[in-house]
Amino acid sequence: MVEIPDTLPARMFLLAYDLRKERMTQHGPRLGYVLRAAALTELFLDGRLVEEHGRPVPGTPGDDPYGLLAEISASRPRSWQHWIRKDVRAMAGTVREELARERWIRVTRERRLGLFPRDRVSVRDPRVVKALWGGASSALRGRPVAHVNSYDAAAVALAAAGEMASVLPGSDRRRHRRRIEELTARSGPAVPAVRKLLRARRAAAAAG
After folding, report:
1. pLDDT (tens digit, 9 = 90+) per residue, 144-163?
2. Rounded to whole angstroms, how far apart are CA atoms 135 and 1?
3. Cβ-contact 119, 107 below 8 angstroms
4. Under a CB-based contact definition with an 8 Å cutoff, are residues 176 and 183 in contact?
5. Are 30 and 162 in contact (CB under 8 A)?
6. Per its UniProt record, what InterPro entries does this chain match (predicted)?
7. Rounded to 5 degrees, what are φ and ψ at 147?
8. Higher pLDDT, 46 or 114
9. Is 179 left (phi over 0), alpha (psi -120 to 50) or beta?
């Protein structure tokens, strides 16, 4: 059996990798939104975050691998969207460094068009991504929603909200809309907040 990362943000980062094209398919704020939402979702599913008046507040004390609990505890109550938007680029960098340090991925420096330096991410063992994709696919098409592993359910819900075509092409999001809604309901408030943020970004771009 293939070992996979423990944390939901690490899993979502790897799911953003396209094995066929051998590159990341998510970049910039959108990837950051998904990863921040994944961290919040993990805390919510474990009871370390709860919702009061539509906002996240600390719940049962526990691990805080990405420092979000500390941020939320030190702040006045703010919306889920606020915490998903905050420090998105830093979050992507933190998760990437974690995966590189633990040897799930390799990060190399290259030049785009021979001129512009950028980092290239490659997965060390493609079986890890295949195993994560298999879990997401099973959650989407397999057993009753109540019996789906909570992280697999959240992975599908986050991939749909973040429009991650590497996991869920648009055709699959439309075909399985009801199932995705059921998985989203299991996964907590951070997931629909991602969808709202992306819609707001598109509306702002269209108006601008």
Report:
1. 898 999 999 999 999 999 99
2. 13
3. yes
4. no
5. yes
6. GPP34-like, GPP34-like_sf
7. -105, 5
8. 46
9. alpha
